[in-house]
Amino acid sequence: MADPFWMLLIIQHLGKDHYVWDKAGTIDFVAPGRADVYAHFKLEPAVLDELRAAAADGEKVLRWFEVPIKTADGEVVAIVRKQIYVRLKPKNR
């Protein structure tokens, strides 16, 4: 349910000048999900600025992102962590 979204959000904002890949992921199951569950992905502009700056010299950047999976009443049923790889493409260095 939460697998591609951090990568897709970052690709959308960084554009075609960067490679953006999923590198790793973990799920911490906290409680049984007995109802519909939801995730809210929020990518702050400051994080995008940090990624751009860290990748500006062409080095790879690895960063973890986390999102809680909750029921409609706010009960956390899982926490999903994704590690994203970002690197400026050679032609843009």
Short précis:
This protein is an alpha+beta fold and 93 residues long. It contains 2 helices and 4 strands, in the order H-E-E-H-E-E. The chain has a single domain (5-92), classed as Roll (Thiol Ester Dehydrase, Chain A), CATH 3.10.129.
- What's the N-to-C terminus distance? 34 Å
- Biggest sheet: strand arrangement: 1-4-3-2
* SSE pattern, N- to C-terminal: HEEHEE
**Mean pLDDT, nearest integer?**
96
Radius of gyration of CA atoms, rounded to a whole number: 15 Å
Number of DSSP strand runs: 4
Structural class: alpha+beta
Quick tags:
93 residues; alpha+beta; Thiol Ester Dehydrase, Chain A; 4-stranded antiparallel beta sheet; elongated
Outline the structure in words.
It is a single chain. The protein has helices spanning 5-14, 45-55; strands at residues 18-29, 37-39, 61-71, 76-88. It is an alpha+beta fold. The chain has one domain (5-92): Roll (Thiol Ester Dehydrase, Chain A), CATH 3.10.129. The chain has a four-stranded antiparallel β-sheet. Strand 3 and strand 4 (76-88) form a beta hairpin. The protein is elongated and about 50 Å long.
